[in-house]
Amino acid sequence: MSTLLEVSDLAVSFGDVAAVRGVSFAVEAGEALAIVGESGSGKSLSSLAVLGLLPPQARVTAGRISFDGRDLLSCTDEELRQLRGEEMAIIFQDPLSALNPSLTVGYQIAEVFRRRRGLDRREARQRAVEAMAEVGIPDAAARASNYPHEFSGGMRQRVMIAMAMALRPRLLIADEPTTALDVTVQAQILRLLRRRQEDGLALVVISHDLGVVARTARSVVVMYAGRAVEAGTVADVFSAPAHPYTRGLMAASPSARDAQRTVRPIDGYPPDITSPPSGCAFHPRCPFAQDRCRTEEPELRTVSPGRTSACHFAEEVVTHDEPLATRA
Ligand SMILES: Nc1ncnc2c1ncn2[C@@H]1O[C@H](COP(=O)(O)OP(=O)(O)OP(=O)(O)O)[C@@H](O)[C@H]1O
Ligand code: SF4
Ligand SMILES: [Mg+2]
Questions:
Q1: Among 35, 38, 45, residue to substitute to test ligand 1 (most atoms within 8 Å of Cβ)
Q2: What is the pTM of this model?
Q3: How many domains does the chain contain in total?
Q4: What's the domain range around 131?
Q5: CA spacing 20 to 30 A to 306: which of 27, 120, 160, 271?
Q6: Do 126 and 187 sit in the same domain of this protein?
Q7: Tens of pLDDT along 107-136?
Q8: Does the Cβ of 55 fall within 6 Å of ligand 1?
Q9: Of 50, 48, 42, which is closest to residue 20 (Cα–Cα)?
């Protein structure tokens, strides 16, 4: 299958502050890629850049974004607006902020069909109800008359998916699609996304939950302080991380492995991107850090086929046999 979305060496800045640097990823039709990392690591900015939806103060300062062979960075606002919805869509991190509280959910979805497909009121309403039913909203015809606040978190998330998928885009970016949902609803939403993927949808899932990542994506990019620090297939990366930060994330994740072990959070906090640490940005928190790490920034390099890591000692980290966490 050919690559649908390819992001190479992307950099996003707020004035002089580099919020994202050297981030690359690619996703094919029918595939799912996950972007993981702590809060502030640049996950949302990387994906907003793809859709041309960066906040007004932010700018893409380097890199290439290509969608189906098209250079998105040279598209006009109008061309991007056209592509959004039709070809690529996003489920925003905060579904409530993306819905208008004063309009019914059915009206808001129907609006997509009216504006983009030129359907009349009745047809558009019918299509909205179908879209809601498709994502498993029970009694969709009646629920279409409800306002966003009348929906539970999980149902609201379904509404967002219905709206994003209304025009059958080929790429969906789901920014934390299951945060704040209970496990059962979470599983339902993930199943829903997987079904769309079977129909050929390319999916980029942003999540801090490694369990979600393991259940949805084939490949993963791990971000730290605006950079990709490790990338590879989920199977490879999760079975033997080649970056200490990935190891730390896994040890800190309650769902990545089995439930019987002690969760061990990563010491310290993510750095302030306005004054990042010297050398490797992870060095103040890294149990593997050596002198060199304080002065020399590691390049993201290939450590094995299909696998990259930005750690000077990736080879040692990947074979390190200390358990990822202490068993309870
Ligand atoms: N509008 C903005 N103005 C200034 N800085 C911003 C703005 N939006 C994001 N940033 C900064 O850019 C960095 C990356 O932000 P981003 O939203 O991509 O993080 P994230 O990985 O999605 O985090 P989270 O998990 O909290 O959603 C952060 O340090 C953030 O403070
Ligand atoms: S380069 Fe050094 S500080 Fe950075 S992750 Fe690797 S060992 Fe840790
Ligand atoms: Mg975010």
A1: 45
A2: 0.92
A3: 2
A4: 100-167
A5: 271
A6: no
A7: 999 999 999 999 999 999 999 999 999 888
A8: yes
A9: 42
